[in-house]
Amino acid sequence: MINVETLLKVADNSGALVCGCIKVLKISARIGAIPGQTVTVSVKKNIFKKHVTKKSKIISKGQICKALLVCSAKGLKRWGNFFFKTRMNRTY
Prior knowledge:
It is a single chain. The chain is 0% helix and 41% strand. It is an all-beta fold. The protein has a five-stranded mixed beta barrel. It has a two-stranded antiparallel ribbon with strand order 5-6. Strand 1 and strand 2 (16-24) form a beta hairpin. It is elongated and about 50 Å long. The two termini are 16 Å apart.
């Protein structure tokens, strides 16, 4: 379960390394987000890119983005006793 102020690892090549969750979208914050849901995140740590031609595509520290949760440490139980268990928090 992902709640507010949870640190997340980024799994794509956007340049961000670590993000912090600001808000869980379309669900009660008391429950938390599960894999497959969208959250609003703030970039905490990024890779500095020197040779980027498009300056608008650079992800900078403090930038606010929307992210899709891919996996979580707790896992996810679905109907029919079908259980997903993953190892770490990742976002795209």
